[in-house]
Amino acid sequence: MTDPETFIRGLPKTDLHMHLEGSIEPELMLELAERNGIPLRWDTADALRAAYDFHDLQSFLDLYFEGCKVLVTERDFRDVTSAYLARAHLDGVVHAEVFIGPQSFTERGIPIEALMRGVLGAMDEARAQHGITSALLISVHRHRTEAEAMAVLDQILPWRDRVVGVGMGGAEVGNPPSRFARFFGAARELGFRTCVHAGEEGPAAYVREAVEILQVDRIDHGNASMADSALVRDLVERRIPLTVCPLSNVRLRVVSNMAEHPLKSMLEAGLHVTVNSDDPPYFGGYVTENLLACYDALDLSIADVVRIVRNGIEASFITTEGRDSLLYRLDRYVEASRSIEAASV
Ligand code: HPA
Ligand SMILES: [Zn+2]
């Protein structure tokens, strides 16, 4: 019989909430620092890994922004993107939607062209080499001003056809979605899909603002929604996907341990939940590890896991044909696993 881990690793999955700046494995971080002559506070991969001990979102963001400094050239952006997509492919991810936040780089004088060419070039290469498809989401920082976010929108216009959507991350509490109403309105008018981090450390009211004021297509995290049953009803009715990141939530102490994670209650409430990796090296796992951690700690059934993976495909920002083809692939995989099981009884 196929064991659950092999089955889950082999499922054709999506990763819809993943930050390229947060995907740099410690070994690559050291290599890039050396290549660019950037001093780091750590000189071994183990020392870096040991520093990934966070007590809240801000303690993570401090390290995450420090890590951004090793990315300087087009080649660096290409290498980081290639490494993530190769690793995700091994993990059974067939489609990834990845964030990058240009403000961390343009503020240091790095031209946006270097970032865009590196990332998009690697995405094209990974598709040719591994068959993995990916889409780019441009993220702005909510702890900066809305005017700065609007400037990012201007900067990415030359790549309008290659950027599927825009999102927003950074320090949540004190920076409610409503501060960025004009930015998200402008992004929607330009034809970008939209998503926003909400209800990670912030309250359910931020998720409500994201849906009602920003009118986003997807909520990143969204855990806090469970505190407001009327909001849950709205999210279910409007079928707004939530890109949940369970290992991230444990590491950032949004939940005290995996057994306390609301994922199963969210599923039972009928929410369109997906499972994603956020910043894999920082939080200890790619999508498979996230799904396995939930499967083990929350007593999920294999049918629950397949439901979550199906939700991910349905929540993606790809074309209807692309989505249908991934759903077909998922159904075939599940059917084939059933036949193997039946034959081995
Ligand atoms: O989980 C997150 N929350 C907010 N900002 C972020 N930037 C990267 N990951 C995150
Ligand atoms: Zn995130």
From TrEMBL:
Superkingdom: Bacteria
Pfam families in UniProt: A_deaminase
Keyword Hydrolase: yes
GO terms, molecular function: adenine deaminase activity; zinc ion binding
Enzyme category, top tier: hydrolase
Catalytic residues (positions): 200
Cofactor note: Binds 1 zinc ion per subunit.
Catalysed reaction equations from the record: adenine + H2O + H(+) = hypoxanthine + NH4(+)
CC cofactor: Zn(2+)
E.C. no: 3.5.4.2
InterPro entries cross-referenced by the UniProt entry: A_deaminase_dom, ADE, Ado/ade_deaminase, Metal_Hydrolase
Residue(s) at site: Important for catalytic activity: 221
GO biological process per UniProt: adenine catabolic process; hypoxanthine salvage; nucleotide metabolic process
Residues reported to bind Zn(2+): 17, 19, 197, 278
Annotated Gene Ontology cellular component terms: cytosol
Amino-acid positions noted as binding substrate in the UniProt annotation, renumbered to this chain: 279
Keyword Metal-binding part of the UniProt annotation: yes
Record keywords: Hydrolase, Metal-binding, Nucleotide metabolism, Zinc
Role summary: Catalyzes the hydrolytic deamination of adenine to hypoxanthine. Plays an important role in the purine salvage pathway and in nitrogen catabolism.
Family stated for the protein in its record: Belongs to the metallo-dependent hydrolases superfamily. Adenosine and AMP deaminases family. Adenine deaminase type 2 subfamily.
Record-linked PANTHER family: ADENINE DEAMINASE
Protein name: Adenine deaminase
Annotated organism of origin: Sphingomonas panacis
